[in-house]
Design brief:
By secondary structure, the protein is α/β, with parallel strands linked by helices. It has 2 domains: 6-249 and 456-479, Aldehyde Dehydrogenase, Chain A, domain 1 (3-Layer(aba) Sandwich), CATH 3.40.605.10; 253-446, Aldehyde Dehydrogenase, Chain A, domain 2. It contains 14 helices and 23 strands. The strands form 6 sheets. A 7-stranded mixed sheet has the order 15-18-19-14-13-20-21, with helices on both faces. Helix 13 (421-430) links the parallel strand 20 and strand 21. Helix 2 packs antiparallel against helix 4 (95-119), helix 3 packs across helix 4 (95-119) and helix 5 (152-166) packs across helix 14. The relative contact order is 0.14. The mean pLDDT is 97. It binds NADPH dihydro-nicotinamide-adenine-dinucleotide phosphate.
């Protein structure tokens, strides 16, 4: 069975302690490879390599840095099929989703920052004939990048690409639950000839490898995507060390549907925004609020379409719902369905584990689930479930739905469906979230700032903000006379 290796100082190496963890294929519920169970020593070796590589990489001309990133982007594109299959097996997601979203977007991240750095310019401020100020931006140093399991290569590259473009060297940790595409990325970096030590990938558990990255005194900047609780722990450790922090955390995203929406478009998109990747996208809408005149019609159609979603082999051409990522995650999701019932909710469809049979009978499959009849402020409607479970609820007024939408500790993303232009702008302005999609979902322009508010995160990724995050500004003021 394949033993994944760490990528340190330009080489694929085993973990120092030579210990490995099981890597599960969630579609079959079976171990299919091994992951390094790395520890602090591996992180220290990786940090030493990144530190040594930093002086040269940070002054490598941007056009050369750009060429490396563009080479990596094109190798990801060339290996699309292989990477998509690896991600689908590692994560349980339908292959077509990995092929059309995750992997192309990972290539796009390297492409975007590989070209973006060429157009990035610092500012200058003239004080008429008295002085001129200009801002130098130096790469911060060794960046720590920690990412989750739901969009493994896409989110991993979303951090690594701007850090490398900015001139930082990197020590990165993918989620231990889905390490395979990060491993394949190491091979791609070797093939691209990326100088040794510029990117280092250390596999292993969050409480060993992740916390060793967070607490390492030679890592002054950390970009993290994951759960809110983990983000709080990282902030607790990093804040007294005055590290730069970007935290992209959990969500409980509202979908607000007004009766005047374009119904067919709304319904088709709501199917995706609810159940894409088994609801395991931080941007999925999990609380759906429908204006009362449309409620019954929406409920009937939404339930009917959801019941028809085919569940099973992630490689199946017709499969819409693959496996959830792990047994423990499946159990967590099911416990929320039980909680919803205790809280007075009615399960309109789904709510159970599915045995899809054959070689997949041990896999972690769940029926897509719709629940109604819950109060907006119950735990089911306030806590992140991160699975194929949504609640639906009617509303009468704009004020009421905004109160529901804004009632959670989270503020990551939201969608608004209406053909009324002024209302769209008004509601978008009043929703407490970092992203509002009007009449669409998951449409991304990489130039725009990305991130959540409240407990969904601090800092903004995306666009030139991400390059700036990995640099430190220094103002130089020159007196002219
Ligand atoms: P976790 O917070 O459990 O893990 C995220 C990463 O942090 C993993 O690599 C994990 O390692 C690591 N980690 C765990 N503990 C520590 C620690 N003490 N110090 C440093 N690193 C640690 O999140 P999940 O992987 O379960 O991902 C799901 C979460 O991510 C959801 O809440 C989702 O909303 C959020 N998310 C947010 C996004 C956003 O853009 N805002 C995008 C995508 C997901 P290990 O895997 O070994 O535990």
């Amino acid at each position: 069975m394949l033993k994944i290796q760490n990528y340190i100082n330009g080489e694929l190496v085993p973990p120092t302690g030579n210990q490995y963890l099981d890597n599960y294929d969630p579609a079959r519920g079976k171990v299919y490879s091994y992951i390094p169970d790395s520890d602090e020593k591996d992180v220290e070796t990786a940090v030493a390599a990144a530190k040594e590589a930093f002086p040269a990489w940070s002054v490598t001309p941007k056009d050369i840095r750009s060429k490396y990133l563009l080479k990596i982007a094109s190798l990801i594109e060339e290996n699309l099929e292989k990477l998509a299959k690896a991600e689908s097996i590692d994560n349980g997601k339908p292959l077509h989703l990995a092929k059309t979203v995750d992997i192309p977007r990972a290539a796009a991240n390297f492409h975007f920052y590989g070209t973006g750095i060429l157009h990035y310019s610092a500012h200058s401020h003239s004080m008429e004939d008295t002085a001129v100020n200009y801002t130098l931006r130096h790469p911060v140093g060794v960046a720590g990048c920690i990412s989750p399991w739901n969009l493994p290569l896409y989110l991993f590259s979303w951090k690594i690409a701007p850090a490398l473009a900015a001139g930082c060297t990197v020590v990165a940790k993918p989620s231990e639950v889905t390490p395979m595409t990060a491993f394949l990325l190491s091979e791609i970096c070797i093939q691209a000839g990326l100088p040794k030590g510029v990117l280092n990938i250390v596999h292993g558990l969050g409480h060993k490898v992740g916390s060793a990255i967070t607490s390492n005194k030679d890592i002054p900047v950390i970009s993290f995507t994951g759960g809110t609780k983990t983000g709080a722990e990282i902030a607790r450790v990093a804040a007294p060390m005055f590290k730069k922090l970007s935290l992209e955390l959990g969500g409980k995203n509202p979908n607000i549907i007004f009766a005047d929406c374009d119904y067919e478009k709304m319904l088709a998109t709501t199917m995706h925004s609810s159940f894409a990747n088994q609801g395991q996208i931080c941007l999925c809408g999990s609380r759906i609020f429908i204006e009362r005149p449309l409620y019954e019609k929406f409920k009937t159609d939404f339930v009917e379409r959801t019941k028809k979603l085919s569940i099973g082999d992630p490689f199946g051409e017709k499969t819409k719902i693959g496996a959830v990522v792990s047994k423990s995650h499946m159990e967590k999701i099911l416990s929320y369905v039980e909680l919803a019932k205790e809280e007075g909710g009615t399960v309109l469809c789904g709510g159970k584990k599915v045995d899809v049979g054959g070689e997949f009978s041990e896999g972690y499959y769940l029926e897509p689930t719709i629940i109604e009849g819950l109060a907006y402020n119950c735990r089911t409607n306030q806590e992140e479930i991160f699975g194929p479970v949504v609640t639906i609820m009617p509303f009468d007024t704009e004020e009421e739905v905004l109160m529901y939408a804004n009632s959670t500790i989270y503020g990551l993303a939201s969608t608004v469906w209406t053909e009324n232009l002024t209302r769209a702008h008004r509601v978008a302005a009043d929703i407490h979230s970092g992203i509002v999609w009007v009449n669409c979902w998951l449409l991304r322009d990489l130039r725009t700032p990305f991130g959540g508010v409240k407990s969904s995160g601090v800092g903004r990724e995306g666009g030139f903000e991400a390059i700036e995050f990995f640099t430190e500004p220094k103002n130089v003021c020159i007196k002219l006379k």
